[in-house]
Design a protein that fits this description.
single chain; alpha+beta; Glutaredoxin
């Protein structure tokens, strides 16, 4: 079942951010745009490259009013240890959520039960806590965080301009479409 258009399910978890432990819940995904990035586990191979790439895009995402959260099966303690020991992860300033009980991974339908870890899932969530975009990659396929920028701009445009949609390869300032009977068969 698709999660698109559904509200984020309730959860409570511990997280690590900027040298501090904190508690987070689904409420933290509301009031601004959010990107939630699931990855299999800390101290692995592809994961640090993705999370570092996400950090590189973090300032541009923040300019769009987006907050970023990463989630893995590891505890907030493990996130801190990884942050302290890895050059790539040490750069991260966004929130790293621990999901050792797999509640969040199940809520987002990315848990691989037999492995006890999440697929590489990326979710764009609107300020109402509703999922607007989902991307899930196989374990060996790393993501490119730069692709989030245009997706978020398109999602924000559609939210702010009811009745309009963004076509393929849409860029900010480009033409949009107003679906109507007149367009059927003409595109």
């Amino acid at each position: 079942m698709s999660l698109i258009g559904s509200e984020v399910k309730p959860f409570n978890a511990h997280a690590y951010r900027n040298g501090e432990f904190l508690e987070v819940s689904e409420a933290d995904f509301k009031g601004q745009w959010s990107v939630v990035c699931f990855y299999p586990a800390d101290f692995t191979f592809v994961c640090p490259t993705e999370l570092e790439d996400l950090q590189e895009q973090y300032p541009a995402l923040q300019e769009l009013g987006v907050e970023v959260f990463s989630v893995s099966r590891d505890s907030h303690f493990t996130h801190k240890a990884w942050h302290d020991s890895s050059e790539a992860i040490g750069k991260i300033t966004y929130t790293m959520i621990g999901d050792p009980a797999h509640v969040i991974s199940r809520n987002f339908d990315v848990l691989v039960e037999e492995l006890g870890q999440a697929d590489r899932g990326t979710f764009i969530i609107d300020p109402d806590g509703v999922i607007q975009a989902v991307e899930i990659n196989a374990d060996g396929i790393g993501r490119d965080a730069s692709t989030l920028i245009n997706k978020i701009k398109a999602a924000q445009y559609v939210r702010n301009n009811p009745g309009e949609v963004c076509p393929a390869k849409w860029k900010e300032g480009s033409a949009t479409l107003k679906p109507s009977l007149d367009l059927v068969g003409k595109i």
